Amino acid sequence: MCTSLTYENSQGDHFLARTMDFAFELGGQPVFMPRNQKIQGDAGEFTTKYGFIGAGRNLSHYMFVDGVNEYGLGAAALYFPQYAQYQKTAPADKLGLAPHDVTAWVLGNAKSVADLRELVHHIQILDVPVALLGLTTPLHFIFSDPTGETAVLEATSEDLHLIDDPVGVMTNAPQLSWHLQNLSTYGTMQAAERPLHDYMDFSLKTQGPGTGALGLPGDYTSPSRFVRTVFNKHYSLKTAGTPATLNLLQHLLDSVTIPKGVKLKADGKSDYTQYRGYANLDERSYFMEPYDNLELQGIKLTDEMLTDWDTPVEYPLDHTPHVKYLN
Question: Which stretch is the leader sequence (predicted)?
């Protein structure tokens, strides 16, 4: 399933974070993809111009689900079941891409959200399955850059265009427009307490603090995760610096992180948060936090990597739980 959000800290640095919630073990890890690569995608070959880092896996070719490139453009792919509509073929003047290759193509070819608004008119997303899953993955995508501009791509017709995301949050189905309208249902919630009112001659006694957020949905459905993330993002106190901001983003994602076993599918398998990913778009750094080790593990794009390296590099994750004893 998945939840994603953008964040701007008090110093003006921009971040893109996400949970990766899925039952099938994806096996992603941090990967560096150099500039000027020819990638044999599942819908045909495509080329990249820019270097990027993100969560990837090398099967028949490298596939990415999120990351950040050398210009600070961040991207994340999230599940979009029953709403994604892909085409069978691409027009002669457009590049055909499999859904699971879109993230790599974007990070390798777009400098910004504004740049991508034009570039998406030159691609078509095709109904091509990914061998790992044996099906065509229904996806939509969130993009953000160091200007703070954030937009979503939802392939609900053959006409592809970016949709502005004013709250910088995305979950899963339905469409973003539905989620934004649904926010009005919760528009009276606030961080501050709301006073209780007596009924007739009966004086109500408080049940404790937290009445401002009374009614905030707590389940793991896509609409509830969207509302919860918007509320927590909006009212959380601003941070300064990368470590403090990453720490805050960890706390924001805590409310939508799914433990194994609490969200079962029809086949009895459990969707769970396999990892959480964090990109500092200004710093061009990327961090992963696997389910079994909550320590952030990151890589940072350097000028040397971009100018001198010409081969993809994988960075295996440490899955050992870390515990620190103080005595």
Answer: none
